[in-house]
Amino acid sequence: xxxxxxxxxxxxxxxxxxxxxxxPDLKDISKWNNxxxxxxxxxxxxxxxxxxxxxxxxxxxxxxxxxxxxTVVVLxxxxxxxxxHNKDIxxxxxxxxxxxxxxxxxxxxxxxxxxxxxxxxxxxGITLPLLLMFVHxxxxxxxxxxxxxxxxxxxxxxxxxxxxxxxxxxQQEDSINKLADYxxxxxx
Length: 188
Fold this sequence. Notes:
- The structure is a single chain.
- With 188 residues, the protein is an all-alpha fold.
- Helices cover 76% and strands 0% of the residues.
- It has 2 domains: 30-147, no CATH class; 155-187.
- The chain has helices at 11-14, 29-42, 44-61, 63-86, 88-96, 98-116, 119-139, 144-154, 161-168, 174-187.
């Protein structure tokens, strides 16, 4: 399957007034997770642009430390994903508590980077973009176009970079999983 880059969403759709933002229902973690996954898929190119801007600024100020920090985070992420595919207890943790899994990756990266070099590069160049993405994805209400695009990705009509990352973390929308299961049964 060919990887497609999601289109850049209009900035007034990405960050308009407060009428399109609301606190998630903290009592319904599944619904909150679906909102985050949906927004991560839909606004992924916008998130990439914001992260690239922050990473570029920090990278310009401290290029070697940014390179070391980025390498450490990628290697730790790949290590955790590999371990979760080989250990059932980590797979269950990743599936049931994705935030805990990502926090474990970030804390491990933090300790390795603090051992190797500049922690502030990690905080501003790596953690801040991830935190901004998570906060926006948690607060941004979904719209019809958002849901439709995510269903197309979920049933395999298109694959994007964020889709691959969320697949590695085993985080997909519940309704997309049900639809994909149904389509695979029909194909059989």
